[in-house]
Design a protein that fits this description.
Pdz3 Domain; globular; 386 residues; 26% strand; six-stranded mixed β-sheet; 10 helices; four-stranded antiparallel β-sheet; Ribosomal Protein S5, domain 2; 3 domains; alpha+beta
Length: 386
């Protein structure tokens, strides 16, 4: 009997202990649950704040907007004829050192941006401030080039843009033949119209090729035309690339401001803090449209990006894919871009355009004008000075 009582007492004790343990576990579980509910938002908040102080050494290029180039141009002293069509500048937003959460979002979620390491984006030994100043200067240069190209094309002014030798590299192919101040007028029997034209012609040759160069040299206060023949050298960094061994500038670069100041009318620009050279093509088209009769764009709003150079070449730019997104977001159908872009950018432009934007690639100003005529623009006919 006592054994049974002892067993019963033991069983009751064990049952009581189990119930007590269950209660303890239940209380502990509730505490953990409430602690988690209370702690998790705080953890998320702290993590978010900490993420704001963690930054990555990258440049982010994001889609920008489009702006009417006409808003940047003011013409006085000569009749202008603006139209309802708009030649649109395109922009991309450049942001430095994104914080942790922004970086993760841009890298893994948002597909419209471009992430580039800081050291690859800025020229070597160039600070962000110096880079910004360079962008402002490049915008100023693009405005000067737009003036020159538009006014030359319309016959409203004539500028001196002949390629001029600035320096001859000692021991190079041209050493002893060309001198600083010589103005190159012909290579390989073809006319040289500008610095870019000269560079392009040499770029098609190979080291060792014989070149006939015709140049003007000032001798005893008189211009003397000289013809010389020699063999091209090679680039020490790339032996497959031909070099003459000269540094060439356009004469207009040496005095373009003075030449513009001598005009009897004014063309002023207000860049509104937009930097870089990529507005050159848009500004040139806008000037041509305002200074000629008819509607160059044929009632269309057309977006542009691309540098403009002496001789009319349209050069490559950065951020073209992101600009394409901006053009599509603005509901603009046509986007005229440089023929030559970095390979990855060229592919992304087509991907980002989808069915929203018709991409038109051009390599020079003449091709851009032909493209505008093809979409309904009026050809340049009567000039204001004719």
């Amino acid at each position: 009997m006592s054994d049974n009582n002892a067993s019963l007492t033991t069983a009751m004790s064990e049952g009581s202990n189990n119930t007590s343990d269950q209660r303890v576990h239940s209380v502990a579980s509730k505490i953990r649950k409430y602690f988690t509910i209370a702690f998790l938002p705080a953890l998320v908040f702290v993590s978010f704040i900490v993420g704001l102080f963690i930054k990555f050494d990258y440049i982010v290029i994001l889609p920008g907007d489009t702006q009417d180039a006409g808003d940047f141009v003011e013409i006085s002293g000569i009749e202008a004829q603006p139209t309802d069509s708009q030649a649109l500048l395109t922009t991309a937003i450049v942001r430095q050192r994104p914080f942790l959460w922004e970086y993760l979002w841009l890298k893994y979620v948002d597909g419209d941006d471009e992430l580039t390491p800081l050291e690859e984006f800025f020229p070597q030994e160039t600070s962000a401030e110096e880079f910004a100043e360079m962008n402002i200067q490049e915008m100023t240069n693009s405005q000067d080039l737009a003036r020159v190209m538009a006014l030359e094309l319309l016959g409203l002014a004539k500028f001196d843009i002949q390629a001029t030798v600035a320096e001859v590299v000692e021991g190079s192919a041209a050493d002893g033949i060309l001198e600083p101040g010589d103005r190159v007028t012909s290579l390989f029997g073809k006319d040289v119209e500008s610095r870019d034209d000269l560079v392009a012609q040499v770029g098609t040759a190979s080291p060792g090729d014989e070149v006939e160069v015709v140049f003007d040299r000032m001798v005893d206060d008189e211009v003397e035309q000289i013809t010389e023949t020699f063999n091209l050298g090679s680039d020490p960094q790339d032996e497959t690339r031909a070099l003459m061994g000269i540094s060439v500038v356009d004469a207009a670069e040496l005095g373009i401001d003075e030449q513009i100041d001598d005009l009897d009318f004014d063309i002023e620009f207000d860049a509104n803090d937009i930097g870089g050279p990529s507005a050159g093509l848009a500004l040139t088209i806008e000037l041509i449209d305002q200074l000629s009769e008819g509607d160059l764009l044929g009632g269309n709003d057309v977006a542009f990006t691309g540098t403009i150079r002496f001789g009319g070449a349209v050069g490559s730019v950065g951020g073209a894919p992101q600009k394409t997104v901006g053009v599509g977001n603005a509901g603009v159908k046509y986007f005229i871009i440089p023929e030559v872009l970095p390979d990855e950018d060229s592919e992304l432009v087509d991907d980002f355009a989808q069915d929203k934007v018709e991409i038109i690639r051009v390599s020079n100003l003449d091709e851009a004008l032909d493209a505008l005529e093809a979409i309904g623009g009026e050809p340049i006919g009567v000039r204001l000075n004719s």
